[in-house]
Amino acid sequence: MLYPIENKVREVKNLSGIWKFKLDEKNVGMEEKWFEAPLEDWIPMAVPASYNDLLTDSNCKEHVGYVWYEKEFIIPNSWDGKRIVLRFGSATHHAYVYVDGKQVAYHKGGFLPFEVDITEMMEKSTLENHRLTVALSNVLDWTCIPCGEVISKEGDGYPDGFHFQETYFDFYNYSGIHRPVKIYTTPKTYMEDIVIQTKVEGLNSNCPEGRLLTMEDYKKVERATLPTADSAVVKVKIQSTDSVKAVMVLDETEAVIAMETCFRCTETDGKRNYEAELKLENPTLWNPGAAYLYTLRVEGESDVYSETFGIREIETTENRFLINGRPFYFKGFGRHEDSEIHGKGLDDALNIRDFNLLKWIGANSFRTSHYPYSEEHMMLADREGLVVIDEVPAVGMCFWDGQQVFGGNRVNEETLKHHLDTLQEVYERDKNHPSVVMWSVANEAATHEEGAVPYFEKVIQRMKELDDTRPVTMVHTTGADGDKVSQWLDVICVNRYYAWYTDHSHLEVIGLQLEKEMRRWHEKYHKPVILSEYGADTIAGYHKLPAVAFTEEFQCEYLNEFHKKFDQLDFMIGEHVWAYCDFQTKQGLNRVDGNKKGVFTRNRQPKMAAYELRKRWK
Ligand code: GCB
């Protein structure tokens, strides 16, 4: 799916701003067809944003079910004769979209874009002002990813109609139109999709010889001259209803450095598929921390589209993750799209602050735990040279009370279908981002269950069918002995909280338990291992000597125990601290206004551990 861009033949109207909003307190709006007429008794609401923290009433904040959004828009006369598309960056989680009272789209899944062609409707309409209505439901059940369940309780001690949304994941179920809504035009014949894959020839990784174990060893690799290549082949596939005339590659100075006007063209269902290969001599590679972005410009009879891309090679071995032939050690975080007031709403200022902090601390990577982040976020990662493990929202497929998740009446065929659809959507959205070096198909699923085996075989296989250029991982909570699915993965990611959720505060167990367990993973699968989460809740400004749990001193000592051991294990290829920032969760006995494992506060200021990490990583 292409991102909406503006150029000489395409225009974009951004509908961000204040919309009309109405809480469907009794969830009757669908039955009463609220979409047929302008909303009554509405209140103003910001888009993009989560609505939850903008309201003052806890019933609204915690509402389970529908809310309604409405916005008027105008299609200018200058758009006559153009194709018109309505596009949502994301809407969480089920969106029913109506234009002038007629349903035009439905989308399930709160973290990915969807769009609908409204050309015909606009051409037939005599209205000057159009009404866009969105009925949005935040209900999560076992057919959704993330999984959830609405719990109702009756009888003694419970008021009538008592119910709440149960979730099996540790972030607040923020809801709303989280990313921009845009209306864009293309010519009537247009480029529908572009896939760019690159292959490097004559790669010189310039990698200094020597052992690779400690952070210092890896730093030597980082400081060496950047990898180079003699040439690169840029393979382009274009799906288009327009006839493609030329494909060219521009460098960062906007000079055209390669061009092709001859294509292999096949036709299916009225859509033409064009394929071309362009050769670049002495390309500048996209490297972590040293990004270089080329632009692919596709010119058709009527349409034009430009997409940025980077040239880089990825490979995994038994104990290495190679980017451009050079061993890469993941330093960084699991994160969330989360902030005060905005919730999960796109906030460009926040994203800029985040990337500056990531660079300041010396992080070279992050995981989009536990769902795909905004397209705008991914573009920044490409530009800033941050390496991304791109995760789909398959979180909450684990129970702590031993109940079966897979193969029973919880995760079911419908969940699998939605999971596979989501893989396809995330691939289609993110395939051309050089920053994306690996897909994560789930976080902490019950992979010890028999039922997880056929499920994840299909999930992992599908991801590999979609993309054979990137490794696939999933993030584990299950132990190596119990796990039944990692034979299909390329990299093992494990989350561990020794001395926090187990043996609380006993830092002395960390090194021993970590080594024993990580060795077990590596012996069983012979694949490189990343500790994808480790961390301790820390109250900013809380200090004690000697350190005790929840103090800033304790967080430093805690992380340090892990680091000492990482530096002794050759097959460990990365450390992602949990978490980048404090973030909001549902209310719970061990969550005082959210999860406090952040190395930065929710307001993006450093705790003491940030300086410690900076010393280690920089
Ligand atoms: C985990 C989860 C993450 C939680 C974290 C914690 O294993 O993957 O979503 O927030 O633990 O802090 O408990």
Protein architecture, described:
- Helix 4 runs parallel beside helix 5, helix 6 (about 415-430) runs parallel beside helix 7 (about 450-465) and helix 8 packs across helix 9 (about 550-565).
- The radius of gyration is 25 Å and the shape is globular.
- It starts with 11 loop residues before the first strand and ends with a helix.
- The protein is built from 10 helices and 31 strands.
- The model has no long low-confidence stretch (mean pLDDT about 95).
- The protein has an 8-stranded parallel β-barrel, surrounded by 4 helices.
- With about 625 residues, the chain is α+β, with helices and mostly antiparallel strands.
- The longest helix is centred in the last third of the chain and has 18 residues, at about 415-430.
- The structure holds (2S,3S,4S,5R)-3,4,5-trihydroxy-6-oxo-oxane-2-carboxylic acid.
- The site of (2S,3S,4S,5R)-3,4,5-trihydroxy-6-oxo-oxane-2-carboxylic acid has 11 residues, from loops.
- (2S,3S,4S,5R)-3,4,5-trihydroxy-6-oxo-oxane-2-carboxylic acid (GCB) binds next to loops.
